[in-house]
TrEMBL record:
Gene3D superfamilies: 2.170.130.30. One of its GO terms (cellular component) is extracellular space. Residues 74-138 form the Transcobalamin-like C-terminal domain. GO terms for biological process: cobalamin transport. It comes from the Eukaryota. Pfam families: DUF4430. Keywords: Signal. One of its GO terms (molecular function) is cobalamin binding. The lineage of its organism: Eukaryota, Metazoa, Chordata, Craniata, Vertebrata. It comes from Salmo trutta. This is Transcobalamin-like C-terminal domain-containing protein.
Amino acid sequence: MMSMIMASFLSAALLLLVPGILTEKGYGKKNIELTIVNSISNAPNETYSADIVFRGILLGAMRRLQQTNADFKFTYTEDLNYGPFLESVNGVAGDNAEHTYWELLVQIGKNGSVIRPDVGIGCYIPEPNDCIILNFTKW
């Protein structure tokens, strides 16, 4: 019994001590597409390509994209109950008085249907070749 507990503990510790273990070989970075749409002003869409690690969350890919691409910027706040809440993208911010916000949509595959995930940027786990759509719109 004690050897089983030790083996479990050592396995968990190994995962914590080996940085990047899930980003090696078969678990490497995957590519997703991120499209910025402004449904209110009808500004031209902006499309970016972002890397995401195996089973990584969208927020991580967005942070990585912001660090590597000066043209992509976003801000968010952390809600204690619901997690990250997207506030602005590329200088365009949602406004309660104007009833505007950033909506998360996902096109499954290159020509698939568009869905509205039931989670936000802090919990959504994109699949390779997903097209993430950040849509500025009104409620």
